[in-house]
Amino acid sequence: MNRPGLRLGRARADRGRPLFKPLRDRNPAAVGAVGLLVLALVGLLAYNADALPYIGGGTSYSADFTEAAGLRPGNEVRVAGVKVGKVTGVSLDGAKVKVTFKVRHTWIGDSSTAAIGIKTLLGEKYLAVDPLGSRKQDPRRRIPKSRTTSPYDVTQAFDGLGKTLGAIDTQQLATSFQTISDTFKDTPGSVHSAATGLSALSQTVSSRDAQLAQLLTGSKQLTQTLSDQNGHFQSLISDGNLLLGEIEKRRTAIHSLLTGTQDLSTQLSGLVADNNQQLGPTLDALDRVTSVLLTNQTSLDQALALAGPYYRVIGNTLGNGRWFDNYLCGLLPDSYLPAGTPPPTDGCIPPKATGGAK
Known about the structure:
Helices cover 52% and strands 13% of the residues. The protein contains ten helices and seven strands. Strands 1-4-3-2-6-5-7 form a seven-stranded mixed β-sheet, with no helix packed on it. Helix 3 (154-167) runs antiparallel to helix 6 (209-228) and helix 4 (170-183) runs antiparallel to helix 5.
């Protein structure tokens, strides 16, 4: 049998309970596992922020190139010299190189061209896109090789030249050219001269083989070092641009400072010129005064030494008020002292009487 009073008491008890159980009353292991899962999800979202629809944004395109030419993921994508995105991938697709890139707020037409450009003298690359065409490029279709170009890498050319020369047997080459020269020695003069020139050329190359290989190796190391220090060069150039920009901003203030300094020097020169007649006698008189003071320096020191105690006594006499504070010592003789008072033996002693009686 259900009692209304009992149901009312249970309803009131349920209203007093909290809707959610506090964390301190939950299982610590379960709370820790949920916290770690949330942190992992937040880290994953932060790592893939560029791929999110509202945060990352951008449209991905792809293009086929005959060679990568040093292009790497993370390089800039530029349209008319303005950075609009970055390269997201460079991979080999058969005999072609597939380059994927992402741009934001940029229109790419169906006749657009793409070229790998050299960003710096140290060999850093970027992808230059020329947005041509009347319709928008389908992101699912690649830009064909007929509309892409790759730069000629001088560093790679020197590297290949060094490897090629290293693989050539220069001694055997010189012997071959010498054999050709000997074979054509009885031919007409023009042919014999050409063969002799080839022989001399081969001997020259053979004699300079070590130096040439060393030169190519040094050039390769130099280009590699410059490439490794590319970031420092960019920072140096950026700091120089900031310095020049700040000087440009402060140009008016610096010009005013220099102009004011020049005007001040002009005014001081005029002031000295205008007061030369008055300043000359004044300086001469001041020089004479200092000369007199230097001549009597000993007397002045002695006078100051004697004046010190005198002014101290004057201060003690007149320093207590509008009267003279004085003390007379030894004014009365010993006969005027009260009976039984011994006369002073030191300090203030009355003068002795002089006369006929002693």
